[in-house]
Task: structure prediction
Amino acid sequence: MTPIRPICAALLAAVLAGPAVAAVEPPPSRTDTTQRGDPDAPVDLKRFMGTWYVIGRVPNFVERGHVASVNEYQLRDAQKVSITYRYRDGFGEPEQEVRARASVDADSGNHAWRTWFYRVVPTHSRVLEVAPDYSWALIGYPGREMAWIFARKPDMDRDLYKELATRLRDEYGVNTDKLKRVPQHPEQVDKLGFEVPNKR
Result:
């Protein structure tokens, strides 16, 4: 893979830090939409590890047009995390991946993350909130211009998505005017509110 410029690396590192839908959407889940995480409670790193699908994000220079976006987290050591970001430029395109490493600040309750990508200066992001059952997570970035909605499954009920997007705006001050859902299935391409793939 050809190295990219540091500013691009910084943006992608923020995406990966964790620290942003379905072919047939499931019926609304009343239990999911009533779940609320505690933003002051420490993040359980072991529970946070694993697969996170990028359900929604504010499009940025690095991620723009990616579909089927997934982050894989693996705890390597105390407060050290390996991250693999997988994506496609279109559903007919090959899967690509980018690897990074992160350091988690224990004093922040594991909310504050520093991520190194291509060995550049670390960037910072924050786990704003996690569902009590760790089924979804809200991720923020300094300046509140970028944010992500993660989920353990590639499908999220539209009511839950709307609720989480509203929470990003009202409770965390994120500018969600440009927030888009990420296509995880080909049937979602061209649907209202979904990001346009780089290639069709």
